[in-house]
Each structure stands twice: as structure tokens, then as C-alpha cells.
């Protein structure tokens, strides 16, 4: 399939005091380990346009989406709108905090990130080239694990600790498949989108980094040559990470990001020779909105949260140690208080959230179908295998913001995960009602009828 395409990138490294995102405590950045980017990949087929903006950030909140879309419009580019532009993130936990409601956020960063994104789009829009779409599929199960485990007490724990004798089995499955979509020009691969199901949280500390996604991207771009662009799109990995509980090997360090990133790059590089031209001669975009209610909270949950806040009134996050979901599993008092406070805040905010779905269909064989926030892997599998079974389907997540400025997103479990326990089951981490996953999949079933 012939396609016109354009690419550009800009640096997103912070220049102001701001906390890094992804943990519970404030972590003010103090050095740059490797560069953060926003990457623009634009498509044009006849009169139709589509695009992806890919950020080395923890998420793309609705506020940032709105700033970017407004900036693109003011730049005179009316061909790209919310309905045909997917904004997505790698979910790195060593990028600036972009959610206004989280401690350590600096409001001056969002306009900077938005301007960098707009500049990337402007540059790309002025340099269209012609190429051919190619696609393929590979897999790598070495680095991903379902991080929610059934324990001997009949409850589920997230990250219960390595070699924990109370672990019975993982709660759910994994998705090791890696769909690939590329653009060749004169026989040379210029653009590569790879959709990988795994968390980007391997480093910790206060250094700015794109995590393993950065190592993957830099390794493959060095192989592909100057001017190439690689976008490792985050798949549905709300319940997936890289921690192998069967070993006591340390897995939180910069070397771990390098190991995983270069490992994925090795797997993908081997598959590049097998990429095949995408048949057909059509490109179609779809867009949908799904309104979901907030998480339902019982009086007992609210009362328990109030009691926890009172019990640990003297606890705070004044610590230099990273505070993560592992501390929740351990029952660290300051973390228990933190989650109780977040539950009480959610109880005060009962507004519905509007979630956006964007999609690009290339011919009848390739689909890019976005999902918001952090859906569990079974939701991504249902979309890829159930709704688009006859297509190679890439599912970029953390996409297009959530329909609430007060809420910075969160996990979207399956309905059956609620009430079992674990980090993702807490109202602080999952502000969505139980029917959210089903509503998103129903939204995609309706959009699939338009393709």
C-alpha cells in the first residue's frame, strides 16, 4: 500500500524544577540519563489525514491534549483534529509529572511540552514523502509477567515480593506478541511502530530517562540509519511488568532498562526482514466517545479510609526512598494513609469521565486502535483478537487523555478483578466503575462497523 508520510521529533527534557512521575512520593529530577522526546508520525492518503504523537511521558492527560490540539489549530493545520490524531505515551516513570492533581507537578511544564509537540507537527507537515506500508508480527515473552498474584490467603497482591512463599500463581495472562507497522522508502525502512505490552518502570531514582523504550528506540534507529524513527507504543499492560518473582535478582536500575530495551530490539530486528507490504489502497479513521461513571464506593470503604487516615495521622512522605506499589503490598503506614486520602478525595468527586477512542485502518489488514489510561492486558487481547481478528492490530494505550481535568487516568481492570485486592484495585489507582472495560470494548465494536 502506497502512503504519504512525514515525521519529526522534539526534546521534552525538563528545564524547570518538577517531580518525576509514577511513584507516590515527590522525586525532583536532578540529572538527565537519556533524552525524552515527542515523536510525530503523520499519514496522508488522498484527501485523508491521520497521525500519532508519541510521548516519553507517563501519560498524556486531557489538559495536555487540549493544549496541543489548540496549538495545532492555531498553527493553521486544520487537517489534524481530535478525531484523527492519536496522542499516546510510553508510560516512563522517569519523566516529568504531567498530572495537575499529583504532588510535584509544575504548571509551567505543560505549555512547554505542548509547544514542542506542536513544533514537531509543524515540521512534519512541511516535509511529506511517499513510501509503502509494511507490517509483521513477532513475539518475546522474556521480559513480561502478570504482576498480580493469588496468595495463599485467597487474596490478590500486586508485586508481592520476590521469592515470596505465599504466592500461589499469577492472576491473569500475558500478551507477548509484538505487532509491527513500518514505512519503507526506496527499500529502506524509515518508520517503525512496535506495540509492546509491558510497563516502563525499571529505573527508579531522580534521573530523567525514557526507560527501556529509549534503549529500544535508540538501538533500532542506529541499525536503521539516519532519519529513521521508531515508536515503541505501550500496549495494554495495566497488570503487566518486568519483575520476575521466581528470582531474587535486582531489577530496579538503569542496567535493567538497557537489558530489556536491547533485548526487545534484538527480537524486533530479527523480524524486520519478514515485513510484508500491506495490501489495499484505503486509509480510514474512526473516532468515538465513551462516558463512564466513577468508581462506586461503599460506606464501609469510606469509613475504613477515614479510620486509616486518623490512625496514621503522623505519617508523611518526607523520605528519600522511592515509594511504590511494593510498599502498598508491604503495608507501609505512609502509603496506606496516602491511599486512604485518595479514596476520600474520590468520594467527593463524582463526575462522569469521558474517554476517547481513535483508530486508523489501513486497507483491510492493519488497524491501529487506541485505548485510554492503563487497561489490563485481557482488554487489549479482546480488542486485538476479538474485535479485529482478521487484522494485524496495534493497541496504543494511555491515549487521548481522560475526560476529566481532575483525574489523571488510572488502571482499567476487567470487571472480575474488582474486589480481589492488589494495587490496581484501589480507588486511588482505579477511579473507574466496574463496567468501564466492557463499555470501551462495546465502543470499539460500534466503531468497527464503520470500517
Question: What can be said about this structure in brief?
Answer:
The protein has 451 residues and is α+β, with helices and mostly antiparallel strands. It has helices spanning 62-74, 109-125, 211-224, 254-271, 299-311, 325-330, 333-348, 377-387, 436-448; strands spanning 2-11, 31-32, 37-45, 48-55, 85-89, 129-139, 145-146, 148-151, 156-158, 167-170, 177-185, 188-196, 207-208, 229-234, 240-241, 276-277, 283-292, 353-362, 366-369, 374-375, 392-394, 411-412. The protein has a domain at 2-147 and 174-280 and 361-416.
Written description of the protein model:
It is a single chain. The chain is globular and about 65 Å long. 27% of the residues lie in helices and 26% in strands. The strands form 6 sheets. Strands 1, 3, 4, 5, 6, 11, 12, 14 and 16 form a 9-stranded mixed beta sheet that branches. Strands 17-18-19-21 form a 4-stranded mixed beta sheet, covered by helices on one side. A 3-stranded antiparallel beta sheet has the order 9-8-10. The mean pLDDT is 93. With 451 residues, it is of the alpha+beta class. It has a domain at 2-147 and 174-280 and 361-416.
As a whole number of angstroms, the C-alpha radius of gyration is 21 Å
Low-confidence stretches: none
Shape: globular
Strand fraction equals: 25-35%
Total beta strand runs:
22
Mean pLDDT: 93
How far apart the termini lie comes to 17 Å
Largest pleated sheet: 9 strands, mixed
Query: How does the helix and strand content classify structurally?
Result: alpha+beta
How many DSSP helices? Answer: 9
Helix content: 25-40%
